């Protein structure tokens, strides 16, 4: 199991980034894929047409999102924590993803950089 931590700079307000990460209609706008999302702790979510599924654990509006991501056959919980910090050029997004299966680590790092935050960055730069 491996952990991944990275900061991304998004040229948008914390409110805009939070909405883009938590509202299913907003998620579909920047991913082009269906999403099921709620800001209710304990609710299940689905992103990228079901490629990412899990449970929402905690929300602090415009500041923090904590989720458990499901992996088949994994005993240890894989936790994704996204913190939003004000930055002079928009929002600094702090990502921490714990307990990524070692065999999938590079795929997840690429996914965070290109698909997840890469697409979100492109959306706000347009």
TrEMBL record:
Pfam families: AHSA1
Family, as annotated: Belongs to the AHA1 family.
Domain Activator of Hsp90 ATPase homologue 1/2-like C-terminal stretches: 12-121
Protein's name in the database: ATPase
Position of the signal peptide: none
């Amino acid at each position: 199991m491996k952990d991944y931590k990275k900061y991304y700079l998004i040229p948008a307000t914390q409110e805009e980034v939070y909405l883009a990460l938590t509202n299913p209609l907003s998620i579909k706008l920047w991913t082009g894929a269906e999403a099921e999302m709620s800001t209710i702790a304990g609710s299940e979510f689905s992103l990228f047409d079901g490629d990412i599924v899990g449970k929402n654990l905690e929300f602090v509006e415009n500041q923090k999102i904590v989720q458990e991501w499901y992996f088949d056959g994994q005993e240890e919980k894989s936790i994704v924590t996204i913190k939003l910090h004000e930055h002079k050029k928009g929002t600094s997004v702090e990502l921490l993803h714990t307990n990524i299966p070692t065999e999938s680590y590079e795929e997840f790092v690429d996914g965070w950089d290109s698909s997840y935050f890469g697409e979100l960055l492109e959306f706000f730069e347009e």
